[in-house]
Amino acid sequence: MPTYEVDLNGQTFEIEAPDEASLSVAVKKLQSDGGSSEKSNDPGGWSADNVVRSLGRGVLGVGSFLDEANAATNATLAPLVDPLLPESFEKLPGETWGERYDQALEIQRDKDKAFDEQHPVASTGLKIAGGVGSGLGLMKAAPAVGNVVLGNGGMSLPGRVGATIAAGLGTGAIQGYGGGEGGATERTRQAAREGVTGAATGLIMMPVAAGVNAGVKAMARGLIGESDDALSSMTREGRKYVTKELADPEQLGWYRSELDQLGPDAMLADVSPDWQGVARGAAARPGTRSMIVAPLNERSAMANSRLRGDVEANLGPDPIPSAIDREIAQNQEQVGRQYAPIFRERSPFDFTPITDDLDRQITTLRGDAQRQLQRVRGMLNEFDGEGVTNDPSVAFQTRQAIDGVLATEQNPKVINALTEARQMIDNALTRSVPRIKEVDASFSELARQREALATGRPILNNEASAMRPVELEEALVAGAQPQGMQIGPSAVPTRMRQAALGEVHRAIGTKANDTTALRNIVRGEGDWNREKLGLLFGQDNADRALNAIDRETVFGDTANRVTRGSDTAMGTRFTKFLDDIENAQDIPGDTTLTGLGTKVARGIVRSLTQAKASSDTGKVAEEVGRLSVAQAKARDEIIEALMKRGKENVLDQQRLAVINAILQSGGRSAYPSLPGVR
Fold it and tell me: For residue 567, which of 283, 271, 268 has the smallest C-alpha distance?
């Protein structure tokens, strides 16, 4: 570094300085120090002061005013502070505030100039860092103001260009006015020059910033794993809509739980009103209707098969109660044939005690009870005779006749009288016919099963006569108990289950296409049917079967709303989004079409952009609509992609937005540091 000899107040000083500008600053400092130093420090060298000042000069808008603000502060405080400072410190000896201000401003600008000339690359980099840092801070503290200052407004391309030019012009004008020297006239000229430079620089940097921003976004997507997910192949508009409107992590967690319960055939449109709106909006467009309606119709066509399979897996196959009843009746006929052999072993029996008892009751009874006992009394006489029979076969036929009357009798007095008479005859047969009770037990069990089959059919009805769960539980317990000489539990509960299951299958066979009606038949409006099915088949099996019916109800409701419902608010948001894409922006004649010069040319360009917009709209409607009706593995992959984007975009989208804002305004933030511009 060259050394200069300077004569000051009769003294000679040697000063090292890289150039004459730095030498001038050093001489002034030496003068302010009273000529007490023999050698001056390098004003343009590396120091914390120079680094901080360069960063500050890059701050958007106000950076060029900081030297003046510092000079004003120093000029104001100098009379109070300078007497307290050592003689080696740089002071402001001016008598008036104006003199001190001019001295302080000149010192600071000389330092800035020396640092810029001595370290041009570092100075430019620090000012760019100051611009970017101030832009980040502004975007975080006041996003709305930051977007205006950085020129991030405008929905269309002309709007974005206009916002960029306005922001560059405004920022440049403020920077230029603050950096100008002299009076207001000179400052205004400098503001105009730098305003134009800022506008032009911002416009030129737009495509550069867009390219860098695209690269940053691609890198960010790669870092967060978006390149291989189910949404990566979508258009930018479609992916943006899905990520912004339909990727709430909390809602997606609930959707995934619901989809898991509904099974692999479920769609996002089944569990989310928003996704159902997407399906409805896509189905309302002729070009995409078939791709939405076809999966829904195919799924509806398989409703009966799915329901039948789930019911069979959890409750059992269709037992066909009428076939079971015929089988029981045939078994009863076979059992009835066993009576003949055992009556060959019968012994004569004195039935007069029974007839005497009946005669006594007949003399006191009146009405139907008397008449029915008279009939029974007559059946116990010898054929064409007055004497009482001693043949057990006659007594057996009498008991059968009594059973026939009891099957339809409603009068309680008649029922009591006939039941008592039957019991006396049955006791006599037990003593007179060996093994009759063995056959009776078999026949009675079959009769109880036929009765249980009839009792089980209305178990799930929802009428006033509906059986309560507690009543069903009592019937199942009592029905399982063996009677007479029967060994082991009765099949009565089994027949009741078969009858109830037969009604479930009958409802599926006749109401599968009307899932709401099916649900009302099987599930009912309250909890009784669920409890009763649990008693019959086990609660877990019952719940799975009922959930299958609920599932098909959801599927059917989705199909009705999407394919046959009126075009209401359900699809409004997605439809509006598609309309916004399709409505191509009109191109102003005084900007983009400059040079074409005719209205016809502008119409041609608009028709081309409209055709592209329509094509883009159809593409977005197709790809987003397809997501709403995806099933099985494809649906799960979509959920995973949405979950990942929803969680990470909470931070990543904010970060990318800030990067986007800064990069788009990069030219405007850094232009004061470009060659030839302050």
Answer: 283
Residue 487: CB atoms within 10 A of its CB come to 6
> How many residues are given for the chain?
678
* pLDDT (tens digit per residue) in 238-247: 888 888 888 8
- 646 or 628, greater pLDDT: 628
- Burial annotation 337-350 (CB, 10 A radius, 16+ → b, else e): eebeeebeebeebe
Q: What are 665's two structure tokens? A: 């305004």
Residue 476: strand pairing partners: none
Cα separation, 581 vs 237, whole angstroms: 8
Where would I find the beta strands (DSSP E) of 285-350? none
Distance of CA 596 to the CA centre of its chain: 50
3-state secondary structure string, 613-650?
HHHHHHHHHHHHHHHHCCCHHHHHHHHHHHHHHHHHHH
Which one-letter amino acid corresponds to residue 517?
A
Cβ(173)–Cβ(656) below 8 Å: no
Average pLDDT of the residues of the chain: 78
Token pair 């007179």 is found at 432
> In this structure, are residues 194 and 678 in contact, taking their beta carbons and an 8 Å threshold?
yes
Return left, alpha or beta for 38; rule: phi > 0 is left, psi -120 to 50 is alpha, else beta: alpha
Report how far apart the first and last C-alpha atoms of the chain are (Å, whole number): 27
Choice between 591 and 580, residue whose per-residue pLDDT is larger: 580
The residue ranking higher by pLDDT, 675 or 473, is 473
Greater model confidence, 563 or 594: 563
> Can you state the percent helix, strand and coil of the chain, rounding each to 5?
70, 0, 25
**Could you give phi then psi for residue 3, rounded to 5 degrees?**
-115, 130
Residues 215, 221, 226, 227, Cα dihedral to 10°: 30
